[in-house]
Design a protein that fits this description.
With about 300 residues, this protein is mainly alpha-helical. The chain has two domains: about 160 residues, UbiA prenyltransferase (Tetracycline Repressor, domain 2, Orthogonal Bundle); about 130 residues. The protein contains 13 helices and no strands. The chain is globular and about 55 Å long.
């Protein structure tokens, strides 16, 4: 059946909501959470810096992450027309090249906002936006390969926002301990990104996308994802112990042990249980991030 053309008046009236749908607000939480962890880890009271904090939250979520979603949907529009035809671009609710224009406009607005966050906040935003385009846009298109694509996503969702949060609070390069912990949680996020690939194995094979479940097989990819999520957290526990914060290390360790039990259940049926693990195991993961942030704040003020 031919899809009926949308009335232009209706399309015009619904355009703000359709643009919001394109920017996918549900995806904004991880970078905003990581930015919050960066703010906490700095050990600096928000106090009179709340306008900068607000700008950082806006940049991490609606702007940079929103840009990445618009870029991804524009360059995936032909695939989405087959697999998810109701999305804003393939459905025609965002007509012509407006998907591309929105991505460009959001990139420019993100850079403009980033100028208010100081040198290091601006640098982090530039890297995040560059990776957002490199992930989806040819000729680089990092998403074609699960190793590089997941690494870019992990960095953008965890490490860069954490770095940005600490940088905007201190108005300087964050402490090296903060950078190390942010990098470790970015590495762990590589495994989290793999969880999102189990739902589209057949489609990825047909489209030539070398996701880790395609490259390694579903079972091996699931086991690899668990190892990649667990090892950085183990390193975090060891570092917190080395930095004389045993109670924080114990809390992160307890959350990691809980993940081990959840992982065991997930590995029984990884494709079917990946969404379940996203709601359980990943909750423990991000709580561990916050605990680590408080530990870093305590180190800085101790």
């Amino acid at each position: 059946m031919t899809r009926p053309k949308m009335n232009s008046t209706v399309a015009h009236r619904s355009s703000p909501l359709v643009v919001l749908e394109l920017l996918k607000p549900i995806t904004w939480f991880p970078p905003m959470w990581a930015l919050g962890c960066g703010i906490v880890s700095s050990g600096i009271s928000t106090g009179q810096r709340w306008p900068v904090v607000a700008a950082g939250v806006l940049l991490a979520g609606p702007m940079v992450c929103g840009t990445s979603q618009a870029v991804n949907d524009w360059y995936d529009r032909h695939v989405d027309a087959i697999n998810e035809p109701d999305r804003p671009i393939p459905s025609g609710r965002i007509p012509g090249r407006w998907g591309f224009y929105i991505a460009v406009i959001w990139t420019a607005l993100s850079l403009l906002l980033a100028t208010s966050l100081g040198k290091w906040g601006f640098v982090a935003a530039v890297i995040g936006l560059a990776l957002a385009w490199a992930y989806s846009a040819p000729p680089i298109r990092l998403k074609q390969n699960g190793w590089w694509g997941n690494a870019a996503c992990g960095l953008c969702y965890e490490g860069l926002p954490w770095f940005t949060g600490a940088a905007v609070m201190s108005a300087a390069m964050p402490n090296w301990r903060i950078v190390v912990i942010a990098v470790l949680y970015s590495v762990g996020a590589h495994g989290i990104m793999t969880l999102n690939d189990f739902k589209s194995v057949e489609g990825d094979k047909r489209m030539g996308i070398a996701s880790l479940p395609v490259l390694l097989g579903v079972g091996n990819a699931a086991r690899f994802a668990c190892v990649v999520m667990a090892l950085p957290q183990t390193a975090v526990v060891a570092l917190l112990l080395a930095w004389h914060r045993p109670f924080y290390a114990a809390a992160v360790g307890a959350l990691l042990i809980a993940q081990f039990f959840l992982m065991a259940h997930f590995l029984g049926q990884p494709r079917e249980r990946a969404p379940w693990y996203n709601g359980t195991g990943i909750s423990c993961y991000v709580l561990g991030m916050l605990v680590s942030a408080f530990a870093l704040a305590a180190i800085g003020t101790g």
